[in-house]
Amino acid sequence: MIEGKNVIGFEKLGDSDDAVVAVSPADGSTLAGSFSPATSIEIDLALRKASQAYLNYKFLSGSKRAAFLEAIGEEIMSLGDELVHRAMAESALPEGRIVGERGRTVNQLKLFASLIREGSWVEASIDQAIPDREPLPKSDIRKMLVPIGPVVVFTASNFPLAFSTAGGDTASALAAGNPVIVKAHESHLGTNELVAGAIARAAEKTGMPDGVFSTLIGSGYELGQKLVTHPGVKAVAFTGSLRGGKALYDLAAKREEPIPVFAEMGSINPVFLFPEKTARDAENMAATYAGSITLGVGQFCTNPGLLVGIKSEGLTQFEGSLIEKLRATPAGCMLNKGIADTFLKSSTDMLSEAGVSVLKEGNNTTANSINSVLVKVSAEEFLKNPKLHQEVFGPYCLIVECDHRDDMLAVANKLEGQLTATILAVEGELSDNRECLDAITEKVGRVIYNGAPTGVEVCHSMHHGGPFPATTDGRFTSVGTAAIKRFVRPVAFQDLPDSLLPEALKRGNPLGIWRTVDGEQGKA
Amino acid sequence: MIEGKNVIGFEKLGDSDDAVVAVSPADGSTLAGSFSPATSIEIDLALRKASQAYLNYKFLSGSKRAAFLEAIGEEIMSLGDELVHRAMAESALPEGRIVGERGRTVNQLKLFASLIREGSWVEASIDQAIPDREPLPKSDIRKMLVPIGPVVVFTASNFPLAFSTAGGDTASALAAGNPVIVKAHESHLGTNELVAGAIARAAEKTGMPDGVFSTLIGSGYELGQKLVTHPGVKAVAFTGSLRGGKALYDLAAKREEPIPVFAEMGSINPVFLFPEKTARDAENMAATYAGSITLGVGQFCTNPGLLVGIKSEGLTQFEGSLIEKLRATPAGCMLNKGIADTFLKSSTDMLSEAGVSVLKEGNNTTANSINSVLVKVSAEEFLKNPKLHQEVFGPYCLIVECDHRDDMLAVANKLEGQLTATILAVEGELSDNRECLDAITEKVGRVIYNGAPTGVEVCHSMHHGGPFPATTDGRFTSVGTAAIKRFVRPVAFQDLPDSLLPEALKRGNPLGIWRTVDGEQGKA
Q1: Which of A127, A474, B398, B436 could form a disulfide with B489 if both were Cys (CB 3.0 to 4.6 A apart)?
Q2: Does the distance separating the beta carbons of B469 and A141 come in below 8 Å?
Q3: Contact A495 B450 (CB under 8 A)
Q4: Tens digit of pLDDT for each residue in A138-190?
Q5: Which residue of A has its CA nearest to B125?
Q6: Total of domains in chain B
Q7: Pairing between strand B418-424 and B332-333?
Q8: CB atoms within 10 A of CB A134
Q9: How far apart are CA B524 and CA B514, in angstroms?
Q10: In sequence order, which residues have a C-beta less than 8 Å from that of residue A225 and are 6 or more positions away?
Q11: Which burial class, exposed, middle or buried, applies to A521 when counting CB atoms under 10 A from its CB (0-12, 13-18, 19+)?
Q12: A235 phi/psi in degrees, rounded to 5
């Protein structure tokens, strides 16, 4: 069933002889399929097709593009167990998780479909002419968001469906009117091929142009470099490591024509434990966080990697309970050998940093199957050692023990940009520590109160982003409907005849969308 | 009156001994004032004050910040003739233009004041909790735009008021809640000092924090480098040359923490003359374009530098009339010697390019006072010579003569990103050339029908931006209320108690702003 080809529009090509294989992270066995890395000719073909498809695709109505997105969801569902089993085999994630993630992927496609079918997302704004204005007449000016051109998507290892081939980046770029070229993730080549086939079938069934979607196989850096520096590419989305994302950002900035790169690159997602809440609720908090730290073997971008508390009986109780619950959590297999090896090395390295004590060892010796690691350090040591601020991707957590609340504020102020921060506090503590809340807010894209950072709701109000190094541009999000804004730009039309204006800007508002007319919102 | 100091918050400092002077471009005379370039200590102080001011300023209500912006306008007006005369002396622009530009500057401040007083610009979006949702409860998530931090503004030579010290970049950054550090333009140091004083007085009168605004004197590259690489700076706005803007962009991308740079870098603003319109209306078109090409001695970012027409009697008539009208237009003094020298060299260089013929010589020998230059080339030569696509800043225009409409389309497809493009056509011609309209739209931020690109309306629907190299990021604008979006980022709050939420996100909508609640727009 698995052909190992690059999906290039409606063609499947694989002319290279240097085949690569897919490996099971659970047992190291080779999975079905022999995958052909894209040749330079195949890369150029994908980009040429994308540029050509763009000329047609960008003008399709919201409802036509919505039908395409929905059809992708249907084709994914009709892959049935074949997809679920392949994704499980390639990621070592359990069936429940993959089935849930598939649901999220399909719902995400539906959400973008409903957004573009409704149509107001283009932010149509109209300033009407005032021909007799003094000293100069005012022209009729009408502005809306339009697509930006072919988008390259670098997929995430940790969401083989929801942030991969037909994930949030692809869905938002396609919704906006841009063709997409996905770099197949080396960790789930078979899953990628199955989903890419679903997208290609959906494109054919709904009459989309050849080239609206392609996926290319190849080694991360080499193929990445070719894609990001290709003149036909107009924007890049990436989910992965700081090193990987920053390398693509640097390449894009050095192009003759620089292009925007939205890279979501990781976060330690600090959690601030206020003393009264901790004293009252240590057991529940420990249960929640043992679950959050080990969820998906800690392989979430919102995994809590830092717990900041104030020395107290409550904190001691929380620690004890957390250790116990982490000990009771079984080891889990990581997504691939590279990630497991890096986890082993990074979590071990942290132990040799000054002042770091081990609360719960991983005892991790066998590759890929991993136990959580819980360590602890004083605020004083943490504040002077940037190494301790680094993410260890996986079920690793560092408790920072503060002497008093000023330390907590100092820690908040010292942090780099993060996707999220969480505050565990009773309401009075939060209002008494307004300065701390404000300092935390400054560093992050999302502030969570009395919850856990894992679990990112896909909705209009979600912001999954944050100041660098959480992402390359804190003004954008990769989750939620606003993710579409990464791949569009405004165009204004001045005095253009109504018959030639895009539907969204025509005088009669034929789409019935929300528009801003002379500064006032309405549907008139 | 002119002290020659750096305005750093509420202090005026100038400890350097290396004073620079302001020079009249009209006669080369030295103008009053001896200006002290900012020392490293002064630069650090301005940034330290800005970072400190930010902690307070970012939380001020829209109406307080609006009062500050309006007070800036009032203080600028109360500078009276002193400001007008100094700006005239430094820019060689006539009184009418400076007075008009002052009005535009004040109106721009008022427009941003009204935007933030009304408040809906923060794009508040709320997804309400669904505690009993299966399989997982949905949290309450509320998102809005918040300021990004201290912004450095590099001002434009050609708008000593409206795109300088208190211009659109400053107004939009301050409106968003960010302190601003302006690099004083070397061509209008006195004007800068006067306006900076007005801003400082407005800040004191309206109770703004010390450091919400500073301006620093110094040589372009050296001070620019120090500012853009300073860790306290969170965003950059620039208006000027491609070389200058790209250098700042590169510096910002190489920082340990990269920051967004919005540089508006120029454009040749192509104009497409369709044959029927040209045949019918050659005389009027020539009058409009003789005016547009020479307006402000051609020193507008939207100056039409390229006219693309199809060989015909109409085009010949248009050319003849344009030549005549340009000949009748008196020479004008450019903004400074550097700009005049560059114009002389660049416009002369173009004459030696293959196939370029001169329709109207500048006969420009005396520095600074400049006559327009009109040249012509075939589409064939234009398409193969990228040099001819470059901007010559000033009253220079190149006519590209096409044999047929396919040439016109080829020219549109070959162009780099532009701020604007204009189409002169009768309505039938435009609908018959839909492909050409689409190709043009792809390359620009604003499409103008039967008008001239000069004259940029400051309003909600304006887009003054465009694909690279017109700007460094085609997703943003520097003119109009949307300019504020360059300097903000979204933050989401999950399950935060109502009492601790920002006003814009509170349950009762106390600000009465437009919000998106569960995907529906309204003021409920």
Answers
A1: A474
A2: no
A3: yes
A4: 999 999 999 999 999 999 999 999 999 999 999 999 999 999 999 999 999 99
A5: A461
A6: 2
A7: unpaired
A8: 6
A9: 8
A10: A251
A11: middle
A12: -165, 160
The rounded mean pLDDT for chain B is: 97
Chain-centroid distance, C-alpha A247: 17
Tell whether the torsion through CA atoms of A32, A36, A37 and A43 is positive or negative.
negative
- The residues of B annotated with a catalytic role in the active site are 264, 301
> Residue B67 is which amino acid?
A
Put simply, the answer to whether A460 touches B125 (Cβ < 8 Å) is: yes
Strand partners, A420: A446
Same domain, yes or no: A311 and A404: yes
B32 shares a domain with B17: yes
Task: Work out the minimum CA distance from A482 to partner chain B, whole angstroms.
Answer: 10
Hey, is B467 helix, strand or coil?
coil
Report the b/e string of A435-460 with b at 16+ CB within 10 A: ebbebbbbbbbbbbbbbbbbbbbbbb
**Would you mind telling me the total number of residues written for chain B in this entry?**
524
Per the structure block, which two tokens stand in for B286?
């020539």
Task: Classify residue A101: in a domain, yes or no.
Answer: yes
Are residue B277 and residue B232 in the same domain, yes or no? no
- Who among A136, A141, A474 is closest to B459 (CB)? A141
3-class DSSP assignment, residue A88: helix
* Burial category of B388 from C-beta neighbours within 10 Å (exposed 0-12, middle 13-18, buried 19 and up): buried
Q: Is B360 helix (H, G, I), strand (E, B) or coil?
A: strand
Does B18 fall in a domain? yes
More confident position, A28 or A221: A28
- Which CATH number characterizes residue B314's domain? 3.40.309.10
**For A59-117, what is each residue's pLDDT tens digit?**
999 999 999 999 999 999 999 999 999 999 999 999 999 999 999 999 999 999 999 99
Q: In this structure, which amino acid lies at residue B266?
A: G
Joined together, the tokens standing for residue B350 give: 């173009």
Give A277-295 as a 3 state SS string. HHHHHHHHHHHHHHHHHHH
CA angle B249, B259, B148 (to 5 degrees): 135
Chain A residues with CB-CB distance to B485 below 8 A: 475
Cα gap A309→A436, rounded to integer Å: 13
Task: Give yes or no for residue B194 having a pLDDT over 90.
Answer: yes
Largest CA distance in chain A: 80
Q: Are residues A155 and A231 in the same domain?
A: yes
Burial A43-79 (b: 16+ CB within 10 A, else e): bebbbebbbbbbeebbebebeebbbbbbbbbebbeeb
Question: For the purposes of burial, counting CB atoms within 10 Å of the CB of A482, is it exposed (0-12), middle (13-18) or buried (19 or more)?
Answer: buried
* SS (HEC) of A323-361: HHHHHCCCCEECCCHHHHHHHHHHHHHHHCCCCCEEEEC
Q: Alpha helices, DSSP H only, in B240-361?
A: 242-254, 275-294, 313-327, 337-351
pTM of structure: 0.97
Closest-CA residue to B218 (of B22, B38, B16): B38
Q: Do A253 and A338 reside in the same domain of the chain? A: no
Sort residue B474 into left (φ over 0), alpha (ψ -120 to 50) or beta: alpha
User: What pLDDT, in 10s, does the model give residues A354-375?
Assistant: 999 999 999 887 779 999 999 9
User: What would the two tokens of residue A500 be?
Assistant: 């030639």
Three-class DSSP category at B155: coil
Residues from chain B contacting residue A494 (CB–CB below 8 Å):
446-449, 451
Residue B247 lies in a domain: yes
Distance in angstroms (rounded) separating the CA atoms of residues A374 and A293: 10
Pairing outcome for strands B373-378 and B396-402 = parallel
Q: Which domain holds residue A307?
A: 270-449
Q: Give per-residue pLDDT as tens, A409-430.
A: 999 999 999 999 999 999 999 9
In terms of CA atoms, which chain A residue is nearest residue B483?
A490
